[in-house]
Amino acid sequence: MSGTAAIRPTRHLHTKSLLAPSVALLFVWMVVPLAMTLWFSAERYNLLSPGKSAFAGWENYRDLLSHWPLWVAMGNTLFLVGLVLIVTLLLGTLFSLLLDQDFPGRNICRLLVIAPFFVMPTVSALIWKNMLMNPVFGLFAWITRSLGFGPIEFFSHTPLLSIVLIVGWEWTPFAVLILLPALQSLNPEQVDAARLDGAGPIALFRHIQLPHLLRPMAVVAMIEMIFFLSLFAEIYVTTGGGPGLASTNLAYLIFRDALLGWDVGRASAGGVIAIVLANIVALFLMRVVGRDLEGLG
Amino acid sequence: MRSTRSSRWPLTVAGWAVALAMFFPIAWMFLTSFKTEITAVASPPAVFFHPTLENYRAVLARADYLEFAKNSVVVSLGSTLLALVLAIPAAYSMAFFPTWRTRDILLWMLSTKMLPVVGVLVPIYLLWRDLGLLDTVFGLILIDSISVLPIVVWMLFTYFRDVPAVILEASRMDGATQVDELLHVLLPLCTPGIAATALLSIILCWNEAFWSLNLTTVKAATLTAFTASFSSPEGLFWAKLSAASTLSIAPILIFGWLSQRQMVRGLSFGAVK
Lengths: 297, 273
Known about the structure:
The complex is a heterodimer of chains A (297) and B (273). With 297 residues, chain A is an all-alpha fold.
């Protein structure tokens, strides 16, 4: 009686029509803009000179790939994604291990740690940029001055690292949000047994907790990658991609081409490149998450 | 865990230190929102000061603030409602009538999230312009609901899958139609799961920045866009920025705290329950 297979197959007609709206909408969402991006990317098309669009073939790609802004932006994108990923996973694991311990107020601590994830990105970025990292009036500047150092010029000297700091603060809570429950779902008997066998905290982590965390960690990494590849708001309100191109990532470069330069063709070619980059990442994620659905249907 | 009281205090200190450090920027913003603009930039930073509500009054007095807030509420509730209406039947059908394609459909839905939004910025902008959806609340609702739809379907699917099919079968024996079954049996059973899904969707839409920054200017702009306008400020503005920010994040922070345990499922696409 249990399980879903017992239901009469005649109902499939109805159930398909229940599924159809979602599938259709997502299908349109996926196919139409994608086809348009591909099409525009092969066109000479600038909104400032309307009516002059013409087939350009590989011109936009050649133009993009042969100039350094694209390569700088690609490098910045990969740097941001990679570094923030490492920071959030490391700190996320560390904080989760800490919050998994039994100490007074741990539930309140958990709430405080995850709070930054719920703050809208424009607010996070502005709070950090102004009240904390401003080289004259910011709190950090006051601290470094009090310690006898000069203020750190966060956004003019180390723009990318400053963004890593902000985004890392926003997303470490996400890692905790996923990894802490995963850690708590570990069978306590298994942990106790390992303790009785004389495993210290490091052995316990290495042989019991870490293997248990690997899959949730992969999930965190993949989901973060999706978001970090399109990182935009934090750059938009802090550095505006500068100084120069120092903090321009692929998302910001496309935005600049599209909505500041109105060059539809070039922006679309950049879009295609971003999609290709994301797909390489996606292939990996599908493998990891797909495993969860084995044995279904 | 089984440690004695004496060996627990370093853990307590470390745990609280981490928690307070992570929360500090939010606390500092909250504190600053009660300062005058002059105290806000004081050096050394003022911790004790005479609090004022002037900034909140100033922000709320701006005619446009309430417009932005209203847009945020309408967009996040509207997108969530639209996503739920689309996702509930879909998740129901996949959880209780799986076919050999169900797994592929679920994975394909997830894969639509892999499409980086910047990749389709140009066509969406042009389509929205030609359809007259630029800077409209409906245009933003449409795009936000599409972007949360895969997460909503996944999360509902994992909740529905936990409901034993026997319960639905029993109601069917009593002559219930499929619609009855969905509305009167499944939905009441899954109310907590649906509520958690809705909350997560509201949070994601409330904080969504990419499309609100790029597709709206004035009429449909949300609080994310409003706060972004502080990035090119005039004069002293930190205290007002703090007050506006506090107002913008407070409801969502509370929602997030209330539903954090349940939303893990949706955020991990069902991988962690």
